[in-house]
Amino acid sequence: MSGGTQDSINTEKVTYLLGLLGRQRSVSELNPDLSDSDFEDIASEEDELHKDSDKKVYTMLSQMLTKPPVVEDSYESSTTDSQSAVEDVITGIYTDLIEMSESNLVRNDPFNLKVHVKYAEKCLTSPFPPQYVGYDANHGWMLYWLVNFLRTMNRPVDESVSKLVTDKILRVTINEGLGGIGGGSGQIGHAASMYASVLALVLVEDFDTLNRIRHNLYKWMMSLKKDNGSFSMHPGGESDTRSTYCILVIASLLNILDEQLCKDTASWLATCQTYEGGFSGIPNTEAHGGYTFCAIASYFVLLGKGEGSFKERLNNVIDVDNLLRWTAMRQYHLEGGFSGRTNKLVDACYSFWIGGIFPLLEMSQNTNGSLFDRDALRTYILNCCQDSRGGLRDKPGKSPDFYHSNYTTLGLSIAEHEYSFMAQTKPANNDDYAYLVDSVRVRDGDCSAINPIFGLPLGVAEKCKEYFKLADK
């Protein structure tokens, strides 16, 4: 047998083995001079790495199942009863994992990529049953959730789906954007519907449509601006941290963010931080995971320019230490997942709404390490939130849906990566830090890295921003 043929066979062996073990490497990364003995060494090394990982899962689960939580609510209520029921179910799931293992080697359920992709593609291409009439105000949201779910799983979007996205969103765009974008046919423009619809167009890279309507959208967004710096959801509607985040993100992506739009917004957001450390929707109400994420992510669009570092500017505006304390308390000891508020149950969507705050803090505070237990979150998502039919769910016993499939997968991506700022010169624009996100994979997995500020796969927001920066030159 010739040397070249033998090298080719060895390379194929290694590629095949690494694929079985969950490691993804291209052939170009492999040494073409490997011998059979080298192949055996690598196989042994990979096996040991997995044993180490499996032992770590066993140790972690043992602690989660046996150690008491840091804080326990002794007041009996319907919430504590529900919490006990959820804990019982999850205890059973984790106990079964340990009992089915050998020699203290516990492996999480794998991410069922093939089934989840099939679920997303079917939902995008098949008519919905009659009971989905309740989602009529969520056309843009459903498109964003499903397309983003696919893209986060590193799957391309079919051209027919891209056309579907554009067609559907143009139908709910009012007066070429001068009236915003509605949630469904015949509905008024709404900031949250605009946010989801624009993200869907960004995901399918329909920049032509966005370019045609973006300056009209700017006029509509300015009509929602309030004197205190916040924005209304629609004319005469509520204004809160959600609507403000939606406006800022879209203005940034479409390169129409300016000083007039941002005036007083950073200081208004600061008034929404509560005594607990998290942020509420409006001042003097309860801290909530979704509102807190929206507030912190907004600062990455608002605080790019100024004296001192980004860390100094952020720490001068809000109480970061108290925020970190509240956010860390949202990860539950037994489950490993997050709740959205104090004394509430774990919910997989907060894998992003709370989990997404951590990379923002890790980047802004230059922590060079994890601020939460990434392995515990992965364990909750992989073992408790996957549905065998495809899609992901809130918690065991619930059904999968588009919303939880998207945000839980974004959270899984965050658990598989760590984040930092890219090296950069002095920022020229308020939103520059939002596009300086860098990541490194720290756990094996099937999810692409994301930009947590936008809730999009890393590179998607950056490509959109660059397109419109070039268009405006």
Outline the fold blueprint.
Layout: H1 3-20, H2 36-66, H3 78-99, H4 113-125, H5 139-152, H6 159-172, H7 191-203, H8 207-223, H9 241-253, H10 259-262, H11 265-270, H12 289-302, H13 310-317, H14 320-328, H15 350-353, H16 357-364, H17 374-384, H18 402-416, E1 417-421, E2 437-441, E3 450-451, E4 456-457, H19 460-471
Antiparallel strand pairs: 1-2, 3-4
Helix pairs in contact: 1-2, 2-3, 4-5, 5-7, 5-18, 6-7, 7-8, 7-9, 9-12, 17-18
Plain-language structure description:
By secondary structure, this protein is an all-alpha fold. It has two domains: 3-99; 113-471, Alpha/alpha barrel (Glycosyltransferase), CATH 1.50.10.20. Helices cover 52% and strands 3% of the residues. It contains 19 helices and four strands. It has a two-stranded antiparallel ribbon. β3 and β4 (456-457) form a beta hairpin. The longest helix is centred in the N-terminal third of the chain and has 31 residues, at 36-66. The chain starts with a helix and ends with a helix. 45% of the residues are buried. The model is unreliable at 1-47 (pLDDT under 50). Belongs to the protein prenyltransferase subunit beta family. It is an enzyme of class 2 (transferase).
